[in-house]
Amino acid sequence: MSTPQTTPATGSPSAGSGPAESPLAEPPLAEPPLAEFPLGVVEPEYQLWGEVDVDPAGLFGEEAIPAADRAYWDRARRFGLEEVRPVIDDYWDRSDYPFQLATRLGELDLLRDGIDVEGYPAMSTLAAGLVNMELSRADGSVGTIGAVQAGLALRSIAYCGSEEQVARWVPQLARAEVLGAFALTEPTHGSDSVSLETRATRVDGGYVLNGEKKWIGNGSTGGITVVWARDDEGSIRGFIVQQEWKGYTGTTIPGKLSLRAIWQAHIRMENVFVPDSHVMPGANSFKDTSKVLFATRLGVAWSAVGHAMACYESAVQYASQRTQFGRSLASAQVVQERLARMHSELATMQLMVMQMTHREERGELSPVQASLAKYTCTRTARQIASNARDLLGGNGILLKNRVARHLADIEAVHTYEGTETVQALIIGRSITGVSAFNK
What is the arithmetic mean of pLDDT over 37-43? Predict the structure, then answer.
């Protein structure tokens, strides 16, 4: 009878069916039981561009807006939703200029700001305001492209240019065949623009320009720049400078945190020769410059209304879609109070611009009233944007959720064409009869 063989290592009996298992081997794991993924942790895609009632005081009803004006408004609204909305976050994020959107503004006849242009139907002051509002409601950079192109560059030539200059440049600017800039602000003279130091020296056949300008929208896009400079007698003159001319350098300012989808330039002009054909005969003093600025100040107020409308409607929609503490944000008392505050502030802004627009159409708007509209609307839009950003919580700083872009952009709108402080001093002078601008 034979005895079983043992392995030297373990003394275990040899099995004829194969080698023995090592005691160090892990036992096979059982399949874990299947569990449902907690759907409550998946964030929904918030829809923050939808339709919300943004007319608290009932100012924009069918009876209040003539059909011709509403046609401009509707066209601007469709442009914003269908053409700006799908692409603007990418342009804003890359700090790139949406040239095709500027071209479309011209094709859609949204670049006249109420100015009469041969071959075009009349555009009222109200229609211009509604367009400014709607473009900024879509995006501040797009709204600023329109404001610079039409409100400043085109208007300067229409107001101050010769018949030949108007005939050549105004239709091209209205069609966006040429992009236009308005160069007044200097690196050392912002709010104190009347003290500008860019020089225009008279020479045979024209002038030679030397100086620098800063924050010039469209100043590096390859079009034309309306340059304001001081001549040999110390008077402020206006010149149409083609950006490809020798001595003109427009450098896009990098690192902006506001209005990132429009290029603002730092311009340097070294011995730029401007022929007499490009000297605007109607621009001979700062009063002529001020005529242009006065006409655009109400447009800035309308733009602020557009920013506020965008932030308000996004806040309303987010509050209805966002769930916290087992209920929608919209059901919280504090949220309803904040929405009511924005609602009230928006109505205040809209009432202001509508009243001032009616006064302008009657020829009764004063510079102080234009300043009051700009002062009130931009500072109130900042409040609405800040409130909306906070209401969205952490989601409020995401570009895709819309509000952060407007929050950043309204900071620039609040500053350009006269800071809040400057507007306040204009208003204060009218109240007290005492100028705080005097040295």
Answer: 87
Instruction: Tell me: do 311 and 415 sit in the same domain.
Output: yes
Residue/partner pairs of 61-68 with CB below 8 Å, 24 or more apart: 65/126, 65/130, 66/124, 66/126, 68/121, 68/122, 68/124, 68/127
**Residue 34: per-residue pLDDT:** 86
The count of domains in the chain is: 3
171/228 same-domain check: no
Tell me if 301 sits within 8 A of 353, measured CB to CB. yes
- Asked if 315 contacts 360 with a C-beta cutoff of 8 angstroms, the reply is no
Last residue of a domain, one of 222, 250, 278: 278
pLDDT tens digits, one per residue of 310-335: 999 999 999 999 999 989 999 999 99
* Structure tokens belonging to residue 214: 């800063």
Q: Which amino acid is at 206?
A: G
From CA 106, how far away is CA 169, in angstroms rounded?
Answer: 14
Question: Of 234, 249, 278, which residue sits at a domain end?
Answer: 278
Amino acid (1-letter code) at residue 431: I
CATH number of the domain where residue 310 is located: 1.20.140.10
Tokens in use for 141? Answer: 């950079």
List the domain range (segments joined by +) for residue 103: 67-179
Q: Which residue has the tokens 């928006």?
A: 346
Residue 21's pLDDT band (boundaries 50, 70, 90)? low
